[in-house]
Write a structure and sequence with these properties.
Elements (H helix, E strand, L loop, with lengths): L1 H40 L4 E5 L4 E3 L5 E6 L4 E10 L5 E5 L2 E3 L2 E5 L9 E10 L5 E10 L18 H66 L8
Parallel strand pairs: 2-9
Antiparallel strand pairs: 1-3, 3-7, 4-5, 4-8, 6-7, 8-9
């Protein structure tokens, strides 16, 4: 009887030990799995965007705004907007303000009549980079009207007469100012004539004096007696 009771007890003990070992193994596995998944679940995530994913807009947006669950780090954030053909329309570094990243769009960039994809990338608050994409559509925009240059009105006869009057007045002023100058030139020329006549008379008188002196010297030389020995 004693032997028959010990065998069932030994079997139960072995079964309990096996169950305890299995439970311990499962517990350790769950613990390691939780610890390994904790860093991944701590990454920031995008809560919303403006424009929203799949939005249908009547007019182009003025900015791309991303809102996260925590504050991303301002480390080389990037936003790229591409059209349906994959051509980059605009891109830049958004401004980080708290949990919001905003990229202002240049008004000169014409958006309309197409679907645009926004690809974003920021650095999570735990230092890991995160990224994602979303799309929105902008309706076709009307073309801006071409402004016509105003035509120049033809000048009226009164305006033509008023424009010609200053020209005539200028010509009269020029002729009047030229007349005194010509008169002064004539007066200057007439005043020089007596001076020239006086200078000519002086030159003639000097020439006469020189001739007379030379003749007298010649006559004196002829009257001098010669030496007989010569």
């Amino acid at each position: 009887m004693t032997l028959s009771l010990r065998r069932p007890l030994s079997a139960v003990t072995a079964l309990l030990a096996l169950l305890a070992t299995a439970a311990l193994t499962l517990g350790l596995t769950a613990t390691f799995t939780t610890l390994a998944a904790a860093p991944a679940s701590a990454h920031d995530r995008l809560l919303s965007s403006d424009p929203a994913d799949g939005a249908q807009l009547a007019t182009p947006p003025g900015a791309i705004t991303l809102t996260f669950n925590t504050e991303p780090l301002p480390v080389e954030p990037q936003v790229v907007v591409s059209d349906s053909a994959g051509t980059v329309v605009t891109q830049g570094a958004p401004t980080i303000d708290g949990s919001t990243a905003t990229l202002a769009l240049d008004p000169a960039v014409a958006l309309g009549g197409d679907t645009y994809t926004v690809a974003w990338r920021v650095v999570s608050s735990d230092g890991h980079p995160i990224e994602g994409t979303f799309a929105f559509t902008v309706a076709a925009q009307p073309e801006a009207p071409v402004s016509e240059e105003p035509t120049t009105d033809e000048a009226t006869p009164e305006e033509t007469a008023s424009e010609d009057a200053p020209a005539d007045a200028a010509e009269d002023t020029t002729s009047e100012s030229a007349t005194p100058a010509a008169t002064d030139a004539e007066d200057g020329g007439s005043s020089i004539v007596p001076v020239l006549v006086g200078l000519g008379a002086l030159v003639v008188a000097a020439a006469v004096v020189v001739v007379v002196v030379l003749r007298r010297r010649g006559a004196t030389g002829d009257d001098t007696p010669h030496d007989p020995e010569d």
